[in-house]
Amino acid sequence: MFNPAAITPDEIGEYSWIAMSFRDSPSAHDYLDFAQQDLHDGNTSRHLINALSNAKRSLHMRLEDLCLGFGARDLKKLGRYPSLIDFIRKCGFVAPRILDKINKARNSVEHEFKIPTHEETENFVDIVELFLSATDRWRYRQPCDVDIKHIASSGSIALHGISFNWKNGICTLYIGTPEQRKIHCTTQMINSDQPIFFEWVKLTLKNDY
To answer: Do 84 and 185 sit in the same domain of this protein?
Structure first.
């Protein structure tokens, strides 16, 4: 009924946020610290392999946390690393192409038993650090409700807001007449098995300043 791509920034109103759950003890940042310590301690093959492996654990944990936090519901259905990347790409997260590239370095170490160079390892660790920094914001600022004032082309129906139940992977649209209050609207529920779910997530994240 409504196309997220047709909604302009001027039609998007106030946001409400919740705190998102990231795993701790160890956390993604703990594994990143381990990787940085490995690099600091030496430049041998052991140090480089350990650093890259710990950085990989950091990245993988953060990817899983993001997927679970934004509607994945069941990690077993996603499977391996490429599926995690694909999920966050559909949500509109930053830099998934960079993550594809560093995955090649990870695969060469784990599956081809290649010893990474110091530069390759540093690059991997730096990219993971940037990715963690870019996604840390969701811990305390995960959008859950958005007010919207978008009138359909017919002029007789309007979208007044969207809300997310992230744990259950559900997006709810609040639909009514242009004059109607959100509390009196009818609702339409979209789950994360539907491709359109990700278009609403992408719209929400793009306009969350």
So the answer is: no
For residue 178, what are the domain limits? 4-19+141-206
Rounded CA separation 84/103 (Å): 12
| pLDDT interval class at 111 (50, 70, 90) | low
Residue 33 structure tokens: 């610290």
Within this chain, do residues 173 and 161 fall inside the same structural domain, yes or no?
A: yes
Count of domains observed in the chain: 2
Name the pTM for this structure: 0.88
Together in a domain, 147 and 135: no
Side chain identity, residue 143: P
Alpha carbon dihedral 54, 56, 61, 64, in 10-degree steps, equals: -170
For residues 113 and 55, membership in a common domain is answered with yes
Contact in structure between 158 and 186 (CB atoms under 8 Å): no
Residue type, 104: K
Tokens of 146: 């958005």
Question: What is the reported pLDDT for 140?
Answer: 87
pLDDT > 70? residue 60: yes
pLDDT at residue 96 in the model: 66
Q: What is the CA radius of gyration of the chain?
A: 20
